[in-house]
Amino acid sequence: MLIQLRxxxxxxIFFAILCGLVYPLAEIGISNVAFPARSAGSVTSYGxxxxxxxxSGTSWFHGRPDLYxxxxxxxxxxxxxxxxxxxxxxxxxAFWHSNGVNPTQELVTSSGSGVDPDISPQSAFVQxxxxxxxxxxxxxxxxxxxxxxxxKAQLHVFGVPYVDVLHLNIxxxxxKQRLN
Amino acid sequence: xxxxxELGILVVLLGFIWRYLGAYLVAVYNGRLGFLDFIEKPxxxxxxxxxxxxxxxxxxxxxxxxxxxxxxxxxxxxxVFQGYLPLNPQHLKGVTPALAFNTAVSFVTNTDWQNYAxxxxxxxxxxxxxxxxxxxxxxxIGIAVAIxxxxxxxxxxxxxxxxxxxxxxxxxxYVLLPISIVMTLVLVWQGSPETLLANVxxxxxxxxxNQVIFRGPIASQEAIKEFGTNGGGFFNANSAHPFENPTGxxxxxxxxxxxxxxxxxxxxxxxxxxxxxxxxxxxxxMALLFFxxxxxxxxxxxxxxxxxxxxxxxxxxxxxxxxxxxxxGVPNSVLFDVTTTQTSTGAVNSxxxxxxxxxxxxxxxGMVYGEVSxxxxxxxxxxxxxxxxxxxxxxxxxxxxxxxxxxxxIQRNEIIWASIGILVMPITVLMLTALTVALPYGRQAILxxxxxxxxxxxxxxxxxxxxxxxxxxxxxxxxxxxNLTGALAMLLGRFGVLIPVIALAGGxxxxxxxxxxxxxxxxxxxxxxxxLVGVVLLVGALNFFPVISLGPIAEALSHGKFx
Lengths: 180, 563
Fold this sequence. Notes:
The structure holds 2 protein chains of 2 kinds. By secondary structure, chain A is mostly helical.
């Protein structure tokens, strides 16, 4: 028994050093050199392009109606027969209708991470009339901007096409500046 | 269409992994490889072990148990004293003892159940030294036990089943570490952070929103979290979080990593017992259960939630997008969550609590089978082999002959250990669920009402007793009651199966091989595969049908009612 205890302690320390320190620290070193921006979290002056953020008002494209609580990520966990889920969804549908938008499901239901940075291309297209009205930018121009910001399925196979909401709104902001 | 292609690519790649990783594992555990001797030899020297020395099953088990106990203690201390340790840019305090105990047990038993939000509870030091380390070690122990059981079948009148220390060290350095090193870099390339920099606060001038970007050594933990079928997330949102699973490609890659070892071990098994077809029969059982459950879940999620459908909103990404990420869509979310619940991984890329009732039931089902389709790293195949022993016993009863499996007579000793190994999980789950529902703690913790609430509690204990770690969530479990009952479930679920398996391995290794005769029930056949699937489903249904009918089935039938 004592010999197994001694071995356990030595092995525990060995693995803590090998797997807990050498492995991650070596990966951090390599990543910093090979992918400096991504390894640091893809931080831009507008926030991380990987992490979603709250957009409100009628002049920006909205993302998923998430909480965007960066320190406690996760979904709402409302069940399929939840009264709260249904009333929240209906409230969001009413909000969109009052702005002349016929929403997709993603625009009225929250995501799994609570910080979903993306929406489907359709979810962006349906918001165009609202944004055109608020900003005065022609609908056809906004349509071009959305199309230019669609990320296709990787290698045409992995994942589904989507639009990063931050990238899209940065493009809208640039367009606004150019038109003024 | 894309998704069908993706599934096709997944199956083809898994075929290669089955063949080549399977063969590699044979070489690793037979000690035929020596290119990492420069690491292995000094460590074995420190431990005072000769690499060719072997242990009886009692010694193997004792080494494993002592090492696991020390690992729990070690992890517990690191978490409790986190505030005094380095690499803590957020200046987080030590973890409370009840939570630290639950977490230590959770990571050492390869469960990775989490009663905390990682991003705001664990320092980088804890994530690396306490948690990432156990991700490697617990997976390696699972594989070692599977190999010990396979040796039991393969050996003829042998007193020994291998050496725990040698098996465990080889699993880490030859198998888990090299693949993780490469996969971490792929994840970073796709957008997963890997850094020691502190969190950063950014003000977005466009919408006047402040964003705190939580970051850390995420990719390195993510790689082994999937490859070792662990599943404990750096973030509370787990693999739904864009930093853990940034793209459709990483989603695919993580699924592939999760399935790699459990699938490859069936090849290893076939080769080591001397008949590859035995391995194929076992693989076929896993595949049938996996794809059957996946089809059910996908159908349910693609039919959507009738209440949401009735409002008229639709999505091109699938019918039930509640709790699912836009970059994945419904099919890829379902495939991920089905993969992780059927492999004892327990990572999620979408909120299981918001699945449709039958979708949620499908996720629960993967655990109710006992994590055998294909199950966790090592634990999947060793649990399924317990069911295989039960199956040849039942088949033997039907024809009135002493059952045999892989040229070993299946007798009293084998049946006793196999029965214990199979029944510990359902007994633990049902007792703790019943207790929790009866006590006020359970009712205080639930988020949703109605049948869904029972499912939340049932799911929590099923997940922990199967060492899965997937959470239905919607249950406030960071309380002394849930931390301690959860730890009990995880310990029973791990060691209640693992101890019988090692005892069986020892008994089988000592046995003499019996020749195959005309009367032998052949096990490398579709007939055996079918019977084994039947036994797994039957045992699961007999144990769980009553409670499942009160939870997810009642919820599915209560369509139109809201809670």
